[in-house]
Specification:
It contains three helices and six strands. By secondary structure, it is α+β, with helices and mostly antiparallel strands.
Length: 107
């Protein structure tokens, strides 16, 4: 329920040079079990873990082994995966289910 506390605890138990892997939902349907409190962008993860140098970042979808690297400033990759559909009320944009994966090393 309090991811900032979890992040602080992980940073306390991770030694300098230790690896940290984080996988969190980004674009996902609401799910009440166990509960649904937060969605995190890759930039949100960097804010939760300021003492980590992130080496790899990627999105995964709900298709097995489908990953998309997040590189540079990360802008556009999730939008590039969107599907646009013409509807009677106009064009709608649908994003696939996306999960953020990040691998980093504590400074």
């Amino acid at each position: 329920r309090r991811p900032w506390q979890m992040a602080e605890n992980l940073m306390q138990i991770t030694r300098p040079g230790g690896a940290l892997y984080v996988a969190v939902p980004w674009v996902w349907r609401y799910h009440a079990y166990p509960d649904d409190y937060f969605r995190f962008s890759w930039r949100g993860i960097t804010e939760l873990f300021p003492g980590v140098a992130w080496r790899q970042q990627a999105y995964s979808t709900n298709i097995d082994n489908e990953f998309f690297e997040i590189s540079g400033d990360g802008s556009g990759i999730d939008n590039a995966l969107a599907k646009y559909v013409n509807t009677p009320t106009g064009t709608r944009k649908y994003l696939p289910y996306l999960q953020v994966h990040m691998l980093g090393v504590k400074s």
